[in-house]
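Q: Convert this sequence to structure tokens.
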Amino acid sequence: MNSLPDNDPLVLYGQRFESRLLLGTARYPSPDVLEAAVRRARPAMLTASLRRQTATPGGTGSDNGFWDLLRRLGVPVLPNTAGCHSVQEAVATAQMARELFDTPWIKLELIGDDYTLQPDTLNLVDAASQLIRDGFQVLPYCTEDLVLCQRLVDVGCQAVMPWAAPIGTGRGPVNPYALQVLRERLSVPLLVDAGLGLPSHACQVMEWGYDGVLLNTAVALAQDPVAMAGAFADAVQAGRSAHHAGAMAAQDSAQPSTPVLGTPFWHHAASQ
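A:
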């Protein structure tokens, strides 16, 4: 068991981040609410879709207000390839995102099923490999499949982002066994991306040893997104601390929490 160090940064591709929470930027009631939620949660990175950015920074266009907000917040941006259905489309989108956002970071999304938004597990490794060869720092969104995640690591991904459940469902970890096996078998940073709905879900995966979580819908669609952003930030930290503290082993039967020694004599007599 290791105690939690005073400074416990998340390290991805050699870069240190003070927070282990990443936030999406879509579906918030207003830009003001998004800004307040980000300032409350203080995330490591903010995800943004290239498809939302139709104008270049500093130019004219309906989305410049969103870009200006991201710059004002001062949080590193993690562009994503949301909505891409082919390797070629994902690679081209990532290259455009690198130019627009001026960053080598990319959250690789390659969708294989429009109903569940499940990643295309057959072509995801190829897309990741091409992007890594092109100098990207790739964070691939994937399922909890151990073989797939290992292949992503093999081609150079220094972190992997398995889902807990399909995007936007808020169901929490639907396959705890697979997620825990994945954590046990892989040594690279693992961040749960998609499917978390409650702060307790985030705390749970952090207790299992996951290195961080990425959220969007659970915060954006909460009745109070700002308060929920704070709750998730606190839960992530609590889960991380609990993982380092080391949980007690589960028992099959009740165990006394206080010693019998010192209990009044009449208590023993009454029980006979």
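Residues 54-62 have pLDDT under 50 and may be disordered.
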